[in-house]
Amino acid sequence: MSAGPSKSAPVIVITGTPGTGKTTHAQLLAQESPVPLKHINVGDLVKEKGLYESYDHEWQSYTVDEDKLLDELEPLAAAGGVILDWHTCDLFPERWVDLVVVLRCNHTQLWERLEKRNYPLKKIQENNEAEIMEVVLDDARSSYAPEIVIELQSAGTEDLESNVARIVQWIEAWQKNQQSVEE
User: Fold this and answer.
1) Which residues does ATP bind (predicted)?
2) 23 is in an annotated binding site
3) The CATH number of the domain covering residues in 11-171
4) How many other C-beta atoms are found inside a 10 Å radius of the C-beta of residue 63?
């Protein structure tokens, strides 16, 4: 369920295994959207606002303080007009979210992308296995209504452009639906 007719723009979660193109998709969507959307890179927000409990040097990642993160995001989600870009989605309450986009990528290509980021081998292996096992997709499907979860391939620029165009069409339909609910 959405937060009601008071939102002028939807809350969209763009999720997927690290390296699937979430941030690139979110940035382009924020530019192309027919309604103003603020891109929130949740990982960056966690670092900037200190919304973590600790830093794991072996995995080169933060242990997120989920309560602090949700408190930070709640007013933004309630207002609408945000793209939440993160490698997981099941933390976000269902009432916040209007659309969940799960980006997928061929595991060989994913491996190359993560190597370019200088991820430790152990982290590349774990993320690659997660992609093969559809971990993020399964989390999305078990956390949200099936009609709001879409799976999109993210192999390159062509996919990026068609995916963003598809999400823009979804936003336009969402807007029409909101207007008819309010009338």
Assistant:
1) 19, 21-24, 117
2) yes
3) 3.40.50.300
4) 12
